[in-house]
């Protein structure tokens, strides 16, 4: 299904050379969202697109090509011309899916990676009066009494959240995973004291943490969540668990380097724009700003290293 929204145009960055600016198509750029309308990624792309347009000097049209965790849009984008007329906004889910199932594209070889601007973060949270003090205390309790510390999360009994699997594997601990269909159910279960804590996206937990009912033990991300600067990451507490889902922008492989640089500059400017910071806060997303070279390395590293992690935690055959 396609849904389009024409987004506003602004003046080009003065620093962009006229020659480079002429590489842009003479019509609105199509920004493809691999997810259905109304979700977090779709809302984020529709929010950042006019900010990017302001810095790029070109209109942007957002359209949806949903299916298969982003694989449908990725396969379609691969077949497009790398002339700047079509780009896509993705999360790492559309990259990682190529590790666990067959897809019609190679994440490393088939795309030009422009920039990242934000990330979906996950974390562990308990009731404010919980005796569990921090991540070290949480792990110590799970190791002392395996499968007694209960964790609410999304998934199935046989398929707990990736972050919980990694924490168990790297600490030789074992939690009692209790699956729920949605964040509201998880929160209610913790509030009823049916389970000890919840592991979920920070956006689903923001209301109860901001309201003081819950307390965040740690964040499974590379950096702290700006909304709660006092909450350390799991890595800062000695546990190497990073499971955030960066949101980035890509084009078909083979884009003119000068055109790539033009897009990169606009997205990096947009990432620091005050309007974008408000958007991140409103959607409970964290900042994650990487340019073309760093984003490309990030994808290459993910595809090189993550399969071994998946095998170690049981998500791939050993």
From TrEMBL:
Keywords: Signal. It comes from the Bacteria. Residues 1-20 form the signal peptide. Belongs to the UPF0065 (bug) family. This is Tripartite tricarboxylate transporter substrate binding protein.
């Amino acid at each position: 299904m396609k849904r389009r929204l024409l987004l506003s145009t602004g003046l080009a960055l003065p620093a962009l050379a006229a020659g480079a600016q002429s590489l842009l198509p003479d019509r609105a750029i199509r920004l493809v969202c691999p997810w259905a309308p109304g979700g977090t990624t779709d809302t984020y792309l529709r929010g950042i697109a006019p900010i990017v347009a302001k810095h790029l000097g070109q209109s942007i049209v957002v359209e949806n090509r949903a299916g298969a965790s982003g694989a449908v849009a990725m396969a379609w984008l691969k077949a497009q011309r790398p002339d700047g007329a079509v780009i896509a906004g993705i999360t790492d889910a559309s990259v990682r899916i190529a590790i666990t199932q067959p897809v019609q594209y190679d994440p490393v070889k088939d795309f030009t990676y422009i920039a990242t601007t934000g990330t979906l973060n996950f974390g562990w949270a308990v009731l404010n009066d919980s005796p569990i003090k921090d991540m070290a205390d949480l792990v110590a309790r799970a190791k002392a009494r395996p499968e007694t510390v209960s964790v609410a999360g999304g998934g199935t009994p046989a398929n707990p959240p990736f972050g919980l699997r990694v924490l168990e594997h790297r600490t030789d601990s074992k939690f009692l995973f209790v699956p729920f269909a949605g964040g509201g159910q998880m929160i209610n279960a913790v509030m009823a004291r049916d389970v000890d804590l919840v592991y979920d996206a920070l956006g689903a937990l923001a209301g109860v943490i901001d309201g003081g009912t819950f307390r965040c033990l740690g964040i499974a991300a590379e950096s702290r969540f700006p909304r709660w600067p006092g909450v350390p990451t799991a890595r800062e507490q000695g546990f190497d668990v990073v499971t955030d889902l960066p949101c980035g922008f890509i084009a078909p492989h083979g884009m003119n380097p000068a055109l790539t640089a033009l897009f990169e500059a606009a997205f990096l400017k947009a990432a620091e724009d005050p309007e974008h910071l408000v958007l991140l806060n409103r959607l409970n997303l964290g900042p994650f700003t990487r340019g073309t070279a760093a984003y490309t390395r990030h994808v290459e590293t993910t595809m090189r290293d993550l399969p071994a992690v998946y095998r170690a935690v049981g998500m791939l055959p050993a």
